[in-house]
């Protein structure tokens, strides 16, 4: 059906399969149970390439629906177990033909995902943003969605590093540390990406500051022990110990993070 471009009929068929339920009888106990499509696949009663099935259905959705309705259908499929590992590039490769209105879809997809919280939405949003406008689009969304998707800042830093733009990576990292609340562990991950860059540039002051900021957001023992590498470490360790004592209190207050 898809090869013949009978997209409406194909979508109806895929949905009928997904909605199908059968009654199975457990051989040993004689107990009856109702099983859906996913149950039949999980129990290996039927053999289906679920990834290909999902991508094929999405191709029909892409052709038959538009706007928010299409985006909602895509997200529903890609956030379910059978589609959780799929990438947007997997969808583009499901057909050898160039899909129409690709940029329009990407913009609608980005707009929709910008309203959805959670790790899966962030992953899909990053992928679509990068395809739509490269690191600049990821930067734009990181700033606009810093409260909902702060990890996009980390993605921007990593993209600059991959492109060999270490100064830009550091600049984006410092901007992220200014924007993201001190209590979020993602700040420590950003610091971890920045420290090797600062070391290569010989900026020991920046390295020391980043180590302290990382501990401020992720106060685990390995980071605490790293503080002993710093100059005047006794003063830093004292401040860090006070920081650890304040952690339970900070969970219920807006107290400023450790920045000494």
Largest sheet: 2 strands, antiparallel
β-strand percent reads under 5%
* Envelope shape: elongated
Distance between the termini: 65 Å
How much is the average pLDDT? 84
SS field, number of helical segments: 13
Widest beta sheet: strand line-up: 1-2
Structural class of the secondary elements? Answer: mainly alpha
Q: Give the SSE string.
A: HEEHHHHHHHHHHHH
Topology:
Layout: H1 7-19, E1 21-25, E2 32-36, H2 37-42, H3 50-64, H4 67-78, H5 88-92, H6 102-113, H7 119-144, H8 151-162, H9 166-179, H10 186-200, H11 204-217, H12 221-226, H13 233-250
Antiparallel strand pairs: 1-2
Helix pairs in contact: 1-3, 3-4, 4-6, 6-7, 7-8, 8-9, 8-10, 9-10, 10-11
Key words describing this protein structure:
single chain; disordered C terminus; about 260 residues; two-stranded antiparallel sheet; 13 helices; mainly alpha
Task: Explain what you see.
It is a single chain. By secondary structure, the protein is mainly α. It contains 13 helices and 2 strands. The chain has helices spanning 7-19, 37-42, 50-64, 67-78, 88-92, 102-113, 119-144, 151-162, 166-179, 186-200, 204-217, 221-226, 233-250, and strands spanning 21-25, 32-36. The protein has a two-stranded antiparallel ribbon. A hairpin with a 6-residue loop joins β1 (21-25) and β2 (32-36). α6 packs across α7 (119-144) and α8 runs parallel beside α10 (186-200). The longest helix has 26 residues, at 119-144. The protein is elongated. The N and C termini lie far apart (65 Å). The model is unreliable at 246-260 (pLDDT under 50).
């Amino acid at each position: 059906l898809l090869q013949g471009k009978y997209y409406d009929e194909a979508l109806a068929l895929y949905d009928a399969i997904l909605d199908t339920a059968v009654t199975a009888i457990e051989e040993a106990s004689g107990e009856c149970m109702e099983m859906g499509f996913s149950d039949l696949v999980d129990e290996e009663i039927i053999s289906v390439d679920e990834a290909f099935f999902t991508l094929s259905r999405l191709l029909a959705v892409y052709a038959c629906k538009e706007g928010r309705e299409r985006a909602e259908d895509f997200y529903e499929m890609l956030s379910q177990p059978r589609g959780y590992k799929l990438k947007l590039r997997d969808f583009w490769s499901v057909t050898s033909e160039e899909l129409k209105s690709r940029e329009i879809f990407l913009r609608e997809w980005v707009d929709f995902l910008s309203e959805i919280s959670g790790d899966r939405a962030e992953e899909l949003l990053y992928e679509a943003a990068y395809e739509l406008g490269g690191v600049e689009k990821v930067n734009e969304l990181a700033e606009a969605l810093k409260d909902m998707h702060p990890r996009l800042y980390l993605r921007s830093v990593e993209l600059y590093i991959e492109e060999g733009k270490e100064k830009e990576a550091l600049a984006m990292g410092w901007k992220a540390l200014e924007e993201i609340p001190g209590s979020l562990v993602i700040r420590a991950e950003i610091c971890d990406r920045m420290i090797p860059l600062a070391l290569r540039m010989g900026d020991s002051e920046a390295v020391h500051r980043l180590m302290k900021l990382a501990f401020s957001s992720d106060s685990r023992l390995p980071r605490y022990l790293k503080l002993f590498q710093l100059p005047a470490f006794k003063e830093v360790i004292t401040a860090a110990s006070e920081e650890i004592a304040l952690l339970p209190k900070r969970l219920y207050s807006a107290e400023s993070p450790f920045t000494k």
